[in-house]
Design goal:
Elements lengths: L8 H4 L2 H24 L1 H5 L17 H26 L7 H49 L5 H15 L1 H5 L1 H29 L12 H6 L2 H12 L9 H21 L16 H33 L9
GO cellular component, one term: membrane
Keywords: Membrane, Transmembrane, Transmembrane helix
Length: 319
């Protein structure tokens, strides 16, 4: 662990600093190139409006997904509040709290989308009934010669215009929700796997004690998100790996800026740039994003394979 040398010029002119910088700058540049090429089509993929708020279970009303999302948001907000109350805002120095807060943001956005989705679900039969009634009345009026073709065209345009605003207003939130969802999937896998399999076995002694709160912070994020995936019809594609990589790169930049300005302590030993092994650590962290995101992709594949086989009449495939 370094003292004041972390902020010195000598610390930042080491050869391993340049190599580590290239390791996370190159993936970020490649991600930006892919985003510019794919654009909105890469974000939306096979997205349909109902995929955001409709459950993947045929007889399950969307309001139950709304209830779950609201509960998950409140529960995660409670855990995060307890963590900040116990350790202070310094906890946001860690990647764990970054990913935890991101999952909480996802459930907040998902709750908003579900509220609007329940509204759409509730008025859809009424709208369809009004449309059928309008078309029937309009047909009768035409047969009796009481309306003109131009008036008929205006009425149809007005009906179509009144039915579209809800879908149009959701377009930005659709993209944002899908981006956050796919970023969360990789982030929670990385956070929990690194903590339970890499950090915890070596964090023994008087300086660290595993408590129920710490255990929940490194588990309920993944649990809530996996349950969400089992209930919802949110699409999940490999394109989301780009947002996961950019999210982690943003955290590394955040750490580097803080250490260049004032901090001398690294929250994770493998981020320390003073050791000659730093490039290998950074390369391993960059590569581990692929299996972490791939693990969640396997969970989604297992969901469609297993549930569609066990419940062919109740389960609805979205992709």
């Amino acid at each position: 662990m370094e003292n004041s040398s972390s902020m010195s010029v000598e610390y930042w002119v080491r050869w391993q600093v340049l190599v580590c910088a290239l390791i996370f700058i190159l993936p970020t540049a490649i991600a930006v190139v892919f985003l510019r090429k794919r654009g909105e089509s890469g974000v939306r993929g096979t997205l349909k409006p109902a995929d955001l708020w409709d459950p993947c279970w045929r007889n399950l009303h969307p309001r139950w997904l709304l209830y779950y999302r609201a509960f998950a948001f409140v529960a995660m907000a409670f855990f995060l509040y307890q963590t900040v109350a116990a350790f202070g805002f310094f906890v946001f120095f860690f990647y764990t709290q970054w990913s935890f807060a991101l999952v909480m943001v996802y459930f907040a956005l998902a709750t908003i989308v579900s509220i609007r989705g329940c509204r759409i679900h509730g008025i859809r039969p009424t709208q369809n009934g009004e449309r059928d009634k309008f078309l029937n009345n309009n047909s009768e009026e035409i047969n009796h010669g009481t309306t003109s073709p131009s008036k008929d065209k205006e009425n149809k345009f007005e009906l179509h215009r009144n039915q579209t605003p809800i879908i149009e207003q959701l377009r930005f939130l659709d993209n944002l929700l899908l981006i956050v969802y796919q970023t969360c999937a990789g982030a929670v896998m990385l956070t929990d796997i690194v903590f339970w399999c890499l950090l915890l076995p070596f964090m023994t002694g008087d300086n660290f004690k595993l408590t129920l709160l710490i255990g929940c912070m490194h588990s309920v994020n993944a649990v809530f998100l996996i349950i969400e995936s089992a209930l919802s019809r949110m699409p999940f594609t490999w394109f989301g790996l780009i947002y996961f990589v950019m999210w982690s790169c943003a955290y590394v930049v955040f750490q580097w800026v803080l250490h260049a300005c004032c901090f001398t302590w690294w929250p994770y030993p493998f981020l320390d740039l003073s050791t000659p092994w730093a490039p290998l650590w950074y390369l391993a962290l960059a590569l581990v994003h692929i299996p972490c995101y791939g693990l969640y992709m396997l969970l989604m594949k297992a969901k469609y394979t297993a549930l569609s086989g066990m419940f062919p009449h109740a389960f609805v495939r979205s992709i």
